[in-house]
Amino acid sequence: MDPLTIGMLVILAVLIFFMFRNGQKRKKDQEALLSKVVPGADVMTTFGLFGTILEMDDDTNKVLLETSPGTVLTVHRQAIAKVVEDEPVVAADDADVTVIDDTQVEPAPGLPTEFDASTDVADSRDKRADQ
After folding, report:
1. How confident is the model at residue 96 (pLDDT cuts 50, 70, 90)?
2. CA distance 15 to 34
3. Is the pLDDT of residue 102 over 80?
């Protein structure tokens, strides 16, 4: 065999190795996720919805997800993307805050400086049109 053929076979073997390795890693991650998906777990769905699992039906692959008190959604089991772990909140020190500029900005001429709920929007448009 010539060196080019041997090189091509080596590259093919490396690609096949990584393909199987990635498949096994994905399978392990999926099994770890499924072991954490139990009623009472806080989860995030694939479409970004956060909620708590109330009930799971393995036969129909349906999950009852409570997004807010009294709001229960039914989603497919595969829509659960990850289990949300509570992470400790770290408070920022006030000493680390840097004030860049404290200059006051003047409003544009002709515009009100404060919001007045008693004025009508149409009246303010008419006033600006007249100016």
Report:
1. low
2. 29
3. no
